[in-house]
Amino acid sequence: MRANTEIISKPIFNSGGEYTVYAHLVQIFPNHLVFPNMALQAIFQYSRMKELISRADFQYYLMAMVDFCITSTVNYIPIMAVEVDSHYHEEPEQKERDKKKDRIFQTGGVPLLRIRAHGQPTEASLRNQLSRAIEVLITDTPQDDRSNFFNNAATIKALAAELNRAPVEEHDPSVPADSFSGNGQSSFESISPVSAPENGDVQHKG
After folding, report:
1. What angle do CA 94, 100, 105 make, to 5 degrees?
2. In 3D, which of 152, 119, 137, 120 has the Cα closest to residue 191?
3. What percent of the chain clears pLDDT 70, i.e. is strictly above it?
4. Which residues are registered as beta bridge partners of 115?
5. Is-contact 65 203, C-beta < 8 A?
6. How far apart are CA 133 and CA 137, in angstroms?
7. Residue 189 pLDDT level (bands cut at 50, 70, 90)
8. What single string gives the DSSP state of each residue in 190-204?
């Protein structure tokens, strides 16, 4: 089918900072797939989520995306998700959306890590923060639940190995200047795991 001559497509990344985090995640997890802006419907089973979560949370589930999803290359099961929270996430309405997303990931059993980043974070800072956050997740997960929470024992070993490998030389994941906005050098303010192991707009990313 021939496409319309009017181009209305856009980059799959919403900002230069988002692309920078993606580029670093690809470097940090070379043995896994990293998907940007992934719909929650692609991560969790529709029928099960409809049974397990509230009507309001389910409606949000139908529309929402997560910034990054790290996926196994063996069985293509999501291992964990990463959300980059800007200052916009301090607004009351967005906080409510974040709570819905947190509950969905808790119910679905996939860890969700929230990052507060400024400017262009480095791979070293992201690797360090991810390592600490995963360590907290493991520590806070009861021993009997760890296998299910991280899909299988091999998964968490693989993630730990990739995170703890020797630091790589910093690279510049450059982006064409006319594609995104944002510049400057900075690092992550904080990162926190928000999924417990106990278990908007359309396509809203927040």
Report:
1. 125
2. 137
3. 62
4. 84, 191
5. yes
6. 6
7. very low
8. EEEE---S----TT-
Euclidean distance between the first and the last CA atom of the chain, given in angstroms as a whole number: 34
How far is residue 87's CA from residue 143's CA, in Å, rounded to a whole number?
36
Q: Given CA atoms 146, 151, 152, 157 in this order, what sign does their dihedral have? A: negative
Measured N-to-C along each axis, helices 123-140 and 153-163 cross at an angle, to the nearest 10 degrees, of 150
Six-digit token string for 147: 């296998």
Q: What is the pTM of this model?
A: 0.73
**Model confidence pLDDT, tens digit, residues 130-151:** 777 777 776 766 555 554 555 4
Cβ burial, residue 58 (10 Å; 0-12/13-18/19+): middle
Q: What one-character-per-residue DSSP string does 157-200 give?
A: HHHHHHHTSPPPPP------TTT-----B--EEEEEE---S---
Q: Could you identify the residue written with the tokens 């589930």?
A: 61
Q: Classify 103 in phi/psi space as left (phi over 0), alpha (psi -120 to 50) or beta.
A: alpha
Distance separating alpha carbons of residues 82 and 25, to the nearest angstrom: 10
* Segment 38-51, tens digit of pLDDT: 999 999 999 999 99
